[in-house]
């Protein structure tokens, strides 16, 4: 099993004591990276929920390295991460959102302060709590509650280990754990604006805070070891203010010697302040929204963590980027907003993930109108392609959105569709279709052809590439589709080759909603809303109208077993399986289908289904779903009974694909959720995943609105015309020949039926 694409930015990372390793919270694990190479060394795997904190123990040395972790599973774990080896588990029985460990030389014991979520609290509106745990107790007691808040807040520990605090609205609550009292003494600092971040000075009782307006405030001690507070905006005696940022401060940290203060905002701007003089210096802009900024024990090394799932290792004090640890960048903000699911005439307008099954390379549409290429098998970033730019002349009201991306089977060609429109009005936007060719030397794509308004002013609803030749099809909401081919001039380099229109087709001016080529590229299946058609792509001829669904079809896919899989959306969603030998509906389920994955040379196929949050059936079958919101169903092509079922999270907006792995004889199944986290596994023999242990009848009864429908099987001898469709190419015979064979077979069948009904007359 291969897991990847995890979010590296949910919590602040930590350097090892020797500054040679960087520990990152990645979903349910902690990933340990080499600072020298930027490659993952090992991972700490035992938590059953997302890890929220990782803390390197100060007692670590060159031979043994310890760290503490906390998780939403309610457990604190201590590890020897150089091995790696789990040493001990402490269970608080409450989801932990933040953890700090007090150094032994300060507390003279093993004391943990955690920010937990407790819905059993007496105060109905205060679910967040700061609790103190003595980890030397066995069993672990419930802990002492220091404070209650509306929700859990992150805890910040001072470098000396004597203070920790949390910011809550316009206040900062600080506790002095070095006091002689059993419970730490609390001090509260007040401000007039919302405080977004704060940091402790490394060796003095000084605290810096940033607020939502962009100001940086400095509190100093009053000589007796306690912080003073500012009551009003004009009170400057107890608080020094640095004012330069125009947006809220998101990162704040002191240099290791405490002489400088670094502040940054979400836009990526960094400023360094001299505490003694208040002078500032602008630093190179990182270019991505900033989340965390940490120093290592090496004064020349730091790290900045950005919102786009990138961790930059910086050389100090120049802030030069030494190397970058890149995960899969999150989806564009539009995908989580209304634009992600904007539909025109029941047509989905965003298809922003494509996977090349032969190489395991995936293309993800990300922020700033880019496509990121990522190797799923190696969990490694390859490159980024700038698809388009937002021109200054467009203005703020004009939106630019990459609406579709598709990769060829060998990864040599990529196609993208983009739209420029005002507000959410796709119908009046400018649409561009682009073809790209892969350049091996630079490991990225180069633009080959740009086609503006390929379907007049209609939006492109999907793109499909032919797996066997340089051919593509684009479909639109205007009711037409176009087949594109690459110029065959052998003297042209791939970068200079042009794509031209080979043919145009339509069906009764009905919007085309789905398109897919057969495995060998000889056939093209199209959906005109509810009608399924088979076309000859080279001749651009309609071969057959397969059938009609009950709702608009959004996904089509050929299987190696002679079936066509269709997924219908709308008020009556359906998964339907059509037999290409008879052009009849084989069976169907009433399911919400998000994605389909089929094998080229096998009848196996998998579907991703999602579950409506408000569905009463889901709520009443919590023992089946266990907090999951979707499922993957694997079929072997023999019938409607799935051979395996896996429940998954973040299914809506997810993607499925079979991926070939050279190390295995059978392909892996890749599932990418809507947050771009993924897993690759062997669907036929992987025992680590929940498979057909779920009773499929119970499961399907919970997620299906309607019982499955199957057709009655017929003997091959009754349908001699079926032999005309044998072969992997699905080359259909001329229609007159097809009709003659069809009617001849039907006449023979009727004669046999009459003979069966009147045996006595024929026997005489």
How many angstroms does the end-to-end distance come to? 70 Å
Quaternary class = single chain
Please state the average pLDDT score. Answer: 80
Annotation, overall tally of beta strands: 57
Helical percentage: under 10%
Q: What kind of sheet is the major sheet?
A: 5 strands, antiparallel
Strand portion, in percent?
A: 35-45%
Radius of gyration: 31 Å
Total number of helices: 7
Spatial order of the strands in the main sheet? Answer: 46-47-48-49-57
Flag low-confidence runs: 228-236, 335-347, 687-694, 706-764
Shape: elongated
**SS content category:** mainly beta
Task: Explain what this protein looks like in three dimensions.
- The protein contains seven helices and 57 strands.
- With 764 residues, the chain is mainly β.
- The strands form 14 sheets. It has a five-stranded antiparallel beta sheet with strand order 46-47-48-49-57, with no helix packed on it. A four-stranded antiparallel beta sheet has the order 1-56-55-54, with no helix packed on it. It has a four-stranded antiparallel beta sheet with strand order 2-3-4-5, with no helix packed on it.
- The radius of gyration is 31 Å and the shape is elongated.
- Keywords: Nucleus, Repeat, Ribosome biogenesis, rRNA processing, WD repeat.
Quick structural summary:
Helix content is 7%, strand content 45%.
SSE map:
Layout lengths: L1 E3 L9 E2 L5 E6 L2 E6 L5 E6 L5 E6 L9 E6 L3 E6 L4 E7 L4 E7 L1 H4 L3 E7 L10 E7 L9 E6 L6 E2 L5 E6 L2 E6 L8 E6 L4 E6 L5 E6 L3 E6 L18 E5 L5 E6 L5 E6 L4 E5 L5 E4 L6 E6 L5 E6 L3 E6 L4 E7 L6 H4 L16 E4 L4 E6 L3 E6 L4 E7 L11 E10 L5 E10 L7 E10 L4 E9 L7 E6 L5 E6 L3 E7 L12 E8 L5 E6 L6 E5 L2 E6 L4 E8 L4 E6 L4 E6 L5 E6 L4 E6 L3 E6 L6 E6 L5 H5 L1 H4 L4 E6 L8 E5 L6 E5 L8 E5 L5 E4 L14 H8 L5 E2 L24 H23 L1 H5 L1
Antiparallel strand pairs: 1-56, 2-3, 3-4, 4-5, 6-7, 7-8, 8-9, 10-11, 11-12, 12-13, 14-15, 15-16, 16-17, 18-19, 19-20, 20-21, 22-23, 23-24, 24-25, 26-27, 27-28, 28-29, 30-31, 31-32, 32-33, 34-35, 35-36, 36-37, 38-39, 39-40, 40-41, 42-43, 43-44, 44-45, 46-47, 47-48, 48-49, 49-57, 50-51, 51-52, ...
